[in-house]
């Protein structure tokens, strides 16, 4: 059962084609849930969460026509029990890297590509319909965006997104108020974040989630290529800092390491009911894995 405890109590990684876990699978065992380079998870957002039953919207970083972009992943009592293909209707995205629920708008989400193209979508059944495509604000042309998250701040929406960074180049965290009506952003705040690891294959931020209290959880990954070997971390790095005209990020003096994960490349972090965490991996040629914990 998904129960509230520490930020690192529930860690699940899910991908596109299911290899069902055995009935005895426990929350600290990796479960293979997909094989091959087109079956990873690049972003996750919860669709429904009721007791032991969780359904998540998974976005896939596929780029070619005819390849899947979205899937529904079903989990029961820590086990991946089903994966269903979903239909994407509207402008076809290239390289989706993040998806977030729109607070207080049931069935609505925003998905974002590595090239900063964004899609406000509605999910009904297994159909994902584009309501409006738009672009993130101008940014460093070297940016490769892998994260985007929305959080309600009073009557407004705060958006946080980030370039993944690489090696000695830290990630840039961007934040701003966001209007769902016209898909416009207010003044943008920026801050640099460095995970402390500077190998060329390090990605300082592969995804972001914001807890109910405003803490920022950031996954990082080592990605030397399609065959790995991969590794990942999850850290609490700071807090959302709402201000009158903009919203910023206050970094912690010492980010708190919540977990390390050998052999897997985390690219998706989302929250399930009150602070539990759902992680997704994209292990390229080795497909995807699940880690309920």
Structural notes for this entry:
With 293 residues, the chain is mainly beta. The protein has one domain (31-290): Tachylectin-2, Chain A (5 Propeller). It has no helices and 22 strands. The protein has strands at 31-34, 43-50, 53-59, 70-76, 79-85, 87-89, 96-101, 108-113, 117-124, 127-135, 145-153, 156-163, 171-179, 184-185, 189-193, 202-210, 215-222, 231-242, 247-262, 266-272, 276-281, 288-290. The strands form 6 sheets. It has a 5-stranded mixed sheet with strand order 6-10-9-8-7, with no helix packed on it. Strands 11, 12, 13, 14 and 15 form a 5-stranded antiparallel sheet that branches. A hairpin with a 6-residue loop joins β7 and β8. The protein is globular, with a radius of gyration of 17 Å.
Query: How does the helix and strand content classify structurally?
Result: mainly beta
Q: First CA to last CA: what distance?
A: 10 Å
Q: What quaternary form is this? A: single chain
- Give the helix proportion (percent range): under 10%
Determine the strand fraction and express it as a percent band.
over 45%
What shape does the CA trace take? globular
Strand numbers in spatial order across the main sheet: 6-10-9-8-7
**Rg calculated over all Cα atoms:** 17 Å
Tally of separate helices: 0
Low-confidence stretches: 1-26
Q: Mean pLDDT score, rounded?
A: 88
Text of the CATH class: Mainly Beta
Which H/E pattern describes the elements?
EEEEEEEEEEEEEEEEEEEEEE
The biggest sheet, with number of strands, parallel, antiparallel or mixed sense and barrel status, is: 5 strands, mixed
Question: Care to count the β-strands?
Answer: 22
- Total domain modules: 1
What name is given to the CATH topology?
Tachylectin-2, Chain A
CATH-defined architecture: 5 Propeller
Keywords: Signal
Signal peptide: 1-27
């Amino acid at each position: 059962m998904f129960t509230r405890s520490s930020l690192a109590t529930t860690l699940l990684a899910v991908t596109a084609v299911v290899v069902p876990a055995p009935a005895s699978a426990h929350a600290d065992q990796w479960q293979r849930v997909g094989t091959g380079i087109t079956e990873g998870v690049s972003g996750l957002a919860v669709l429904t969460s009721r007791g032991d039953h969780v359904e998540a919207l998974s976005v896939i970083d596929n780029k070619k026509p005819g390849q899947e972009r979205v899937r529904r992943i079903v989990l029961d009592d820590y086990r991946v029990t089903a994966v269903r293909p979903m239909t994407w209707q509207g402008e076809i995205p290239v390289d989706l890297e993040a998806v977030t629920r729109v607070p207080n708008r049931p069935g609505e989400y925003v998905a974002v590509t590595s090239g900063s193209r964004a899609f406000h979508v509605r999910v009904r059944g297994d159909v994902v319909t584009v309501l409006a495509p738009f672009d993130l604000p101008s940014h460093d042309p070297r940016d490769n965006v892998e994260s985007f998250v929305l959080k309600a701040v009073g009557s407004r929406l705060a958006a946080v997104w980030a370039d993944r960074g690489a090696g000695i180049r830290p990630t840039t965290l961007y934040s701003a108020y966001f209007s769902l009506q016209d898909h416009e952003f207010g003044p943008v705040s920026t801050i640099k974040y460095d995970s402390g690891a500077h190998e060329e294959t390090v990605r300082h931020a592969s995804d972001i989630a914001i807890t109910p209290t405003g803490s920022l959880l950031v996954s990082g990954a080592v990605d030397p290529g399609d065959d790995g070997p991969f590794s990942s971390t999850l850290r609490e790095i700071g807090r959302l800092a709402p201000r009158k005209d903009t919203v910023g990020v206050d970094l912690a003096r010492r980010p708190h390491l919540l977990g390390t994960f050998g052999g897997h490349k985390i690219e998706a972090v989302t929250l399930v009911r009150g602070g539990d965490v759902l992680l997704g991996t994209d292990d390229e040629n080795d497909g995807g894995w699940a880690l309920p914990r």
